[in-house]
Amino acid sequence: MDYPKSVPNVGLVNGKFVDENTTTGQVGSLIPASWGNAVTSEILNVLKAVSIAPDELSNDQLYKAISKIVAESGVTKEDVSKKADKAITLAGYGITDGATKTDITNLLPRTGGTLSGPVILNNGTDDTPEISWRTPSCAVNLDLTSSVLHINADRGGEKSWPLQLDIAAKAPYFFGNVAWHAGNFNPSLYLQAAQLPRNVLMPQWWRCGDTGLTIQWGATGSLGSDARFTSFTMAFPNVCVAVLPIVESPAPGLNEIGLTVTSKVKEGFSAVCKVYAGGSANKPVTYIAIGW
């Protein structure tokens, strides 16, 4: 609503109605019927909105209508006063879940930057949120599941596990294979050829430092017609490829002896030693074993 300024010769003074003044010759303003009806309609619409029946003899119905609207909104005079006092804060408006200026400042930067203090990923379960690195052809994720920290990858639809650290078992895995660690690595048995001197000669074995080829020698206990196992002085790191047993100076009557290696492994070999008639020779033999 506004004053009827667009009505010709309405007689407004300084934009407002004035009374006729015969002393000064001031002509009174006109009040067009359309304007009077519009003002009345504005007031009646407010009364209708809150179901108040218009009363021609009552002069406080607009006040009552506005008071009812405010009351039904749940906003009190005190609320309005408090919010006016604290309008510079979210709490002053009753907002409890909005991000503050400090919250926004502390967000992770999207285009790089420096963070100070720990960043903790914890969703309250045994599977934490992942940290992910991505290119158009590959995705690599870092995740902690129960007590296993692992890196998993997806390249061209092929999934793999490049690294897993089993905290409970104290064991690392590379692409699903357990790595050497203090619990399963014995340097005396698993030295790499490149780490060895040119020649390693011990009382009962020799190893080539370039190739890792190893030759062992020794003696067995008494061998008979049943296969008996002899342990090498040192287990071959990888494989035993050959064992040559030798009978030294057979006793009289034992000139025809059958000597056979029945099986061999990295740790030793089994052999039988028989006389020509098939009985046990019960004689120790010497041997040479080759492996690497």
Detail the topology: elements first, then pairings.
Blueprint: H1 33-49, H2 61-73, H3 77-85, H4 101-105, E1 131-134, E2 138-145, E3 148-155, E4 158-166, E5 171-174, E6 177-178, E7 199-202, E8 205-208, E9 214-219, E10 228-231, E11 240-246, E12 257-265, E13 268-275, E14 286-291
Antiparallel strand pairs: 1-2, 2-3, 3-4, 4-5, 5-6, 7-8, 8-9, 9-14, 10-13, 11-14, 12-13
Task: Outline the structure in words.
By secondary structure, the chain is α+β, with helices and mostly antiparallel strands. The protein folds into 3 domains: 32-117, no CATH class; 120-178; 193-291, Immunoglobulin-like (Sandwich). It contains 4 helices and 14 strands. The chain has helices at 33-49, 61-73, 77-85, 101-105, and strands at 131-134, 138-145, 148-155, 158-166, 171-174, 177-178, 199-202, 205-208, 214-219, 228-231, 240-246, 257-265, 268-275, 286-291. The strands form 3 sheets. A 6-stranded antiparallel sheet has the order 1-2-3-4-5-6, with no helix packed on it. Strands 7-8-9-14-11 form a 5-stranded antiparallel sheet, with no helix packed on it. Strands 10-13-12 form a 3-stranded antiparallel sheet, with no helix packed on it. Strand 3 (148-155) and strand 4 form a beta hairpin. The longest helix is centred in the first third of the chain and has 17 residues, at 33-49. The N and C termini lie far apart (104 Å). The model has no long low-confidence stretch (mean pLDDT 83).
